[in-house]
Amino acid sequence: MEHVRLGSTGLKVSRICLGTMTFGLQTDEPTSRAILDRATEAGVTFIDTADVYPLGGGVETAGRTEEIIGRWLEGRRERVVLASKCVMQVGPRPWDQGASRRHVLDAVHASLRRLRTDWIDLYQLHAYDPDTPVDETLEALDVLLRNGDVRYIGCSNWPAFRVAKALGRSDVLRVGKFASVQPRYNLLFREMERELFPLCEEEGLGVIPYNPIAGGMLSGKHQRGGPTAGTRFSLPNAGDLYQRRYWQDRIFDTVDALKNVADEAGMALPTLAVAWVLHQPAVTAPIVGASRPEQLDQTLAAVDVRLDEPLLRRLDELTREYRRGDWDR
User: Fold this and answer.
1) Which residues pair with 124 in a beta bridge?
2) What per-residue confidence (pLDDT) applies to 165?
3) DSSP string of 117-136?
4) What backbone torsions phi and psi does residue 48 show, to the nearest 5 degrees?
């Protein structure tokens, strides 16, 4: 497995990052551990999680994924680069969410306990908090950096202009700056190419996109009609979101066309989808997840795939329309 620098930092991360938001709801602990084992055996050393995971469980299950990872990490901590996130609601009180100084400091210490570690390599803001001044958040994150609780900081689901403002405020305040961004990005959602990716290349930010196979839509397993049982499209607290994003006739039409391209190229559609993300110059390491260990075989295979220019042009032509639209669609 190739390792690359995270943006302009000196930190080296594996070219593929393992996402864990299925752990503890879609996948039980033994299966979650098997997924972690399969990924690390294949050379993945970069693991991403969040305090609100597992996806779809809501406040009642928040933290369960970190607990599973924490138990698996015992005796292995030095072997991985660990990323987590805060901001989403994880408790019943008004301050159990957001990017206030109180919540950021409370959240990181709770994550450290659950993960059974003394530090988190990359700590990210899971979403933008409009109720907290960005200066307050950046100064709180700087405390964590100076204390050694976290080694690098980043953000997820922030539009480009918010990231640009935070970078500027970090310079003014002389505090730690974002090292990376974590946007949603795949063949069916390419809006990050318009503003966020050029900003990241200009400023030296790492890009660790999630959803490279569009929540499973680019696995090719979904059929028109109702959502497939047992997938994130049917989860009680997240299924509606994924259906709004991807359960559309034009998406199914595009997936059918992409299946044909993958068949002609002699590879599985998930492999092609992840390989395409890896070929984008701004991308550091796409985040791939699984609900069964064997699902990783097709996505991890993408690191060995080289797409030629005619194939890249064809993929671009089939999905160019997904560069347009509302940023938070």
Assistant:
1) 85, 154
2) 98
3) -S-EEEEEESS--TTS-HHH
4) -115, 135
What proportion of the chain, given as a percentage, has pLDDT over 90? Answer: 85
CA pair distance 264, 176, nearest whole angstrom: 47
20: left (phi over 0), alpha (psi -120 to 50) or beta: alpha
How far apart are the C-alpha atoms of 286 and 196, rounded to whole Å?
16
Cα 280 to the chain's mean position, in Å?
16
53 catalytic, yes or no? yes
pLDDT at 93 over 90: yes
Domain borders along the chain are 3-323
Amino acid at the residue 98: G
Give the model's pLDDT for residue 326.
46
State residue 106's pLDDT score. 97
154 close to 122: Cβ distance less than 8 angstroms: yes
Report which of 5, 23, 21, 1 is spatially closest to residue 13, judged by C-alpha positions. 5
Alpha-carbon gap, residue 251 to 222, rounded angstroms = 11
Largest Cα–Cα separation, the chain: 54
* Cis peptide bond prior to 54, omega within 30° of 0: yes
CB 302 within 8 A of CB 265: no
Is 0.90 surpassed by the pTM of this model?
Answer: yes
**Which CATH superfamily, name and number, covers 3-323?**
NADP-dependent oxidoreductase domain (3.20.20.100)
The pLDDT, as a whole number, for residue 236 is: 67
Of 178, 190, 152, 209, nearest to 19 by C-alpha is: 209
Q: What is the DSSP string of 36-89?
A: HHHHHHTT--EEE--TTPSTT--GGGTTHHHHHHHHHHTTTGGG-EEEEEE-S-
Task: Give the Cα separation of 269 and 219 in Å (integer).
Answer: 6
Catalytic entry in 53, 128, 242, 246: 53
Residue with tokens 């990050």: 192
| Ramachandran sector of residue 85 (left: φ over 0; alpha: ψ -120 to 50; beta: rest) | beta
pLDDT of 329: 41
